[in-house]
Design goal:
Shape: globular
CATH class: Alpha Beta
Strand order of the largest sheet: 2-1-3-4-13-12-11-8-9
Order of helices and strands: EHEHEHHEHEEEEEEEEEH
CATH topology: Rossmann fold
Helix content: 10-25%
CATH superfamily: Class I glutamine amidotransferase (GATase) domain
Radius of gyration: 16 Å
Amino acid sequence: MLIIIDYGMGNLGSIKRKFSLLGVDAVISSNQFEIINADKLILPGVGHFQKAVENLKQYQLWDLLNEIVLVKKTPILGICLGMQLMAKHSEEGDVEGFGWFEAEVVKIKVKDRLKYKVPHIGWNQISILKKDSKIFKDIQDKENFYFVHSFSTICENPSIISSITDYGVELTASIEKDNIFALQFHPEKSSLKGIKILENFLDIVQEEG
């Protein structure tokens, strides 16, 4: 069972429709029993980091997700704000994230403000760094994906970064660490290549132990 986590912030319907194209009936849910028994999870997110943390705790999902991801090792895919929530801390609201990887979420700072507007909105090319990436299987390097964000994730350990994008400054485009997968861009808005990434996530097998 694939669960799209509903905590009151996110592009849920669009993601569900893209999985429907793959023949998968993803379930949008905030039900703790359904979430803990899911085979795979999607953590979407659109909006403010602090509000997202508050909602996850209000929905009583914060501690549950820590258990599912860190102990049970259920594969999870974070999208946009969902990726940022996996980091240790964010400048946006000055609050702690899940801390599933050592990273800081900071405001995008560009030198040429005439050429590079913030938020970063639109199609941009990515460079794939992990050649054995599970999430980018059969995706060519330098493909374009759709971004909408004002904050970027700065990782202390660059080995977990699976792709980057250039926006006048290097930005983390995606992360892979064990059972944790995260995308700063929106696969559900990125045409056929985005659908292929979602298909790749479906194909990931949970490792035993």
